[in-house]
Prior knowledge:
Chain A has helices spanning 2-11, 27-55, 61-96, 103-124, 133-159, 163-194, 201-210. Chain A is an all-alpha fold. Chain A has a single domain (19-204), classed as Arp2/3 complex 21 kDa subunit ARPC3 (Orthogonal Bundle).
Amino acid sequence: MSTTATTSTKRWTTLPNWKFQILPRDTRTIITCVFLGLTMAVILQITERLDLALTGGSIPIVSAIVVCAIWVPSAAFYGLTGALITAWINPIISNLTASQPMAPFLFLTNAAHTVPVALLVWLMKSRDKGLNLWQLVLIGQVGGLFDAAMFGIGNRVILHLPWDFIAIQILIVQPCYLVGSFITYGIMRRLVNTGLVPKERREFEKAADAL
Amino acid sequence: MNGTMLYRPGDSILHRADPRAKIAVIVVVLILALTTTRIDVLVALTVAVVVGLAVLARITPVSYAKALVLIVPLILLLTLLQSLVQSGAAIATIGGVSLSQAGVLLGLGIGMRLFAMGICFYGFSVTTSPSDIALALNKVGVPYKFAYLTSFAFRFLPLLQDEARTLLTAMAVRGSAESSSRHPLRRGRAIVRMLFPMLAGSMKRSGDIALSMELRGYNLPGTRTFYRTLTFRTSDALLLVGLVLLAGLLVGMQWYLPAPFTEGA
């Protein structure tokens, strides 16, 4: 019983540390972010169809859960560079494949999600350790709120949807972002553990000492 | 609409046009479409875009009809929603619920707006290669390092689409009912399961590609030279003049012609 409790506590504690820079400009970061953006575009091609089946495409429930799990790691690991590149690859693809009538507006809505996430990680993450679960949930929720609000503005400007409908839309997707944040936490932990995410120099030193 | 690149090489006027001129056309069409809800102006804009594509790029409505059909459910939903929330005289009453005329017109106007925007983007995508877009972005001041990412993304998009398909097939082969389920939420769970392998695969792959790109001088400082460059020709200037005339005509139509129907809010 106590082993289960310990495993559970361990699973939801602070994430392993990684090196965070607000504006990394190295080639590896840029290319990684393009690939994350492409992953996002490919996965959204599937989730948009699922949302079409669930809500007629009016409220992106499945997409809201999934976008967190790609955008938040991207902005948290690669700062503003990751936030903007990952956010803008999908609208570029959507525009050039004519797969979304609101594609031009996605440049704004996507960035409205990822930029606050990158800035909040910059403000909240210490150099010595990763983020807590509650910090990640808060960051994901703020990003989601900005995203939904910007999407609502787009719906108002382009589709002339009434504000009541937009408010309901924003309220419905918020729990989806919350669920998405828990999934994101698990994915971020696994990604940091793979060693593919850049680490702080002192982490390498610690590992060398341990060896 | 299936997420693959639409670009088809050709020799039409729009294929040969400078991408910067085509981007200007898109921006103006977007502004025109978004600044009015008058159905007559939006119909005129849509007709201008359709005729323009047929004449300048030899793209007939048959080639994009399939893509437009996919927007129709959204337009119907919007029209129904607008007809329920807008006030004014009722066009019909179904089961005690009145559908307002202003709402129906507004919904159809927005539908026309989506058609005009969608057809315009379709024309741009069919006639402009990603490498031309990268060159155009570079010409307007975006550093090459970032402008190149447009064509880079299109180069690797099919690879990631294949990877997603392989992962879903692998899950099905291992007995997972989620990946082939018709239930949207169960299928959603399958997608959540494939997120980690896709993200880890992307991060792993990017290391090798970044290294090979650096070895080919992607990150080198200094002025870059190009094998192919863009030149702004007389035909591009004429395209822009035509665009200004069209914009003037539509703005004039909106200001000086009375609206044929009562507009929505």
